[in-house]
Amino acid sequence: MQQQLKRGKIIRIISNLYTVELEDKTLDCHARGKFRKEKITPLVGDFCYVDEENHYILEIEPRKNVLERPTIANMDFALIVTSVKLPNLSLNLLDKTLSLMLINKIEPILCFTKLDLLNEEEQKQIDKIINYYKKCDYQVVKNTELDKIKRLLSGKQIVLTGQTGAGKSTLLNKLSPNLHLKTDEISLALGRGKHTTRHVELFKIEDFFIADTPGFSALEIKEIEKEAIKESFKEFNQYTCPFKNCFHDKEKECRIKEAVLKEEILLSRYQNYLDFINR
Ligand SMILES: Nc1nc2c(ncn2[C@@H]2O[C@H](COP(=O)(O)OP(=O)(O)O)[C@@H](O)[C@H]2O)c(=O)[nH]1
Ligand SMILES: [Mg+2]
Ligand SMILES: [Zn+2]
Known about the structure:
Layout: E1 5-14, E2 17-21, E3 26-31, H1 33-37, E4 47-51, E5 56-60, E6 66-67, E7 72-73, E8 77-83, H2 91-103, E9 107-113, H3 120-135, E10 139-142, H4 146-153, E11 157-161, H5 168-175, H6 184-189, E12 202-205, E13 208-212, H7 226-232, H8 255-261, H9 267-277
Parallel strand pairs: 3-5, 8-9, 8-11, 9-10, 11-13
Antiparallel strand pairs: 1-2, 1-4, 2-3, 4-5, 6-7, 12-13
Helix pairs in contact: 2-9
The protein binds guanosine-5'-diphosphate (GDP), magnesium ion (MG) and zinc ion (ZN).
């Protein structure tokens, strides 16, 4: 008898049980023994083919990218949740995540949170920073712009990253009021982070899938080639330095350094760039 294979997406893995989202339902499956022989580990985010009747995953499609710890495959977007207060704005962490996602071929979206906690003066400073990233063609949203976020994410697989307390779970709950994810206060009471940090799951919200992560501990900028880091600071690429392979560091004549002095390039961007290439 011809097997009826259905294409689906792995949204959750609990020990050796894989939950696969099919067009019309979710199905708990086991993985075929051949994966172990071929040293393939099915991952959350994988597109797969299942034998619906026997609850088996038979094939895994080639991946377009993989992030590690927590491990997740095939992300289209990384929503980098960045609070401007509590915890304080960390442009170093933002720039690092931005570069790492670009290097992993995942399109970053900067999502700023807690703007309501700023006074007028702080608001002005943050606006300057936000406008800089926008000018450089990065996608930028505020966590209050729910419709805009939903429009951007439509049909995609998205990974949420950001510091603890940045507002990731709060944002997910706002995007999907019936999700009821634990936010800070509740998980603190339960002894936060003990069991949850490595677990990764894709939640379906409207017509997109999103994973709430505590960041990627395996993403280390110091292991990445200087060349790739330079490339990922994409607004630097519009300048041509006299020295052909200029790293905009100790070189004498450098258009990037000039642009920083003229405030065309944000000083923090340049400082973080130097920090990353000189690790
Ligand atoms: N004032 C303010 N508080 C926020 C905002 N977003 C989240 N919070 C609060 O920040 C705390 C941490 O949020 P949570 O979503 O748990 O952060 P997570 O660790 O990134 O998932 C909670 O007390 C939220 O209510 C915001 O935009 N403004
Ligand atoms: Mg959370
Ligand atoms: Zn240069």
